[in-house]
């Protein structure tokens, strides 16, 4: 069981993690209109939220982990005091232009259709959800028995769950797109094509209808 500070330091110490974070933040900021509000869904310790707020975006944070949310209050103390960042008990407590969910937050939620129905009440029409999700087609995972055991499930159903304490789910982009309808339309998957096989995370952009 980690503390919020341990998680925070781990996320900052990994160059690989930081590379993914930089790419995600760059894409999110390029999509947000000036001054647009954002909900950081599964905000962790507030690393992304702090960046959004610094760029002038009113930022809401939803983080169910008490350890992480406690450290978020320390890391983002200044932003919280000047109301650039506000914590919410439920995603439904805010109405925003965009929802961002970094580092496989959505992979913990098995019922994707219910999730996107809820998010449709959070994101304004024309807004978006941007999520980084674990890539079920990541070839480096082929060395693991759980990946090989679930390959048929992936090909047939487009999703599977890994047997572990957290029951992490892998979803093909088409499954997420289908679950998001009719509220959201899948607009972009990065990387795409053959480049998909070499990346642990896929970035999915879903536009609110």
TrEMBL record:
GO MF: methyltransferase activity
GO biological process, one term: methylation
InterPro entries from the UniProt entry: SAM-dependent_MTases_sf
Pfam families named in the record: Methyltransf_23
Alphabetical UniProt keywords: Methyltransferase, Transferase
Protein name (record): Class I SAM-dependent methyltransferase
Organism: Dyella kyungheensis
């Amino acid at each position: 069981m980690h503390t919020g500070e341990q998680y925070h330091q781990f996320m900052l110490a990994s160059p690989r993690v930081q590379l993914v974070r930089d790419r995600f933040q760059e894409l999110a900021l390029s999509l947000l209109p000036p001054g647009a509000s954002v909900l950081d869904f599964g905000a962790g310790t507030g690393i992304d939220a702090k960046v959004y707020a610094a760029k002038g975006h009113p930022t809401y944070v939803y983080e169910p982990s008490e350890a992480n949310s406690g450290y978020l209050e320390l890391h983002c103390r200044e932003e919280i005091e000047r109301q650039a960042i506000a914590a919410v008990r439920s995603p439904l407590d805010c109405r925003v232009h965009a929802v961002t969910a970094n580092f496989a937050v959505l992979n913990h939620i098995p019922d994707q259709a219910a999730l996107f129905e809820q998010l449709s009440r959070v994101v304004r029409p024309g807004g978006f959800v941007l999520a980084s999700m674990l890539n079920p087609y990541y070839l480096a995972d082929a060395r693991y028995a759980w990946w090989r055991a679930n390959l048929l499930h992936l090909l047939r159903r487009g999703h599977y769950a890994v047997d572990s304490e957290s029951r992490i789910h892998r979803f093909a982009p088409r499954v997420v797109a289908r679950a998001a309808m009719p509220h959201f339309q899948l607009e972009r998957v990065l990387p795409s094509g053959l480049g998909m096989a070499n990346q642990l995370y896929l970035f999915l952009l879903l536009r609110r209808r």
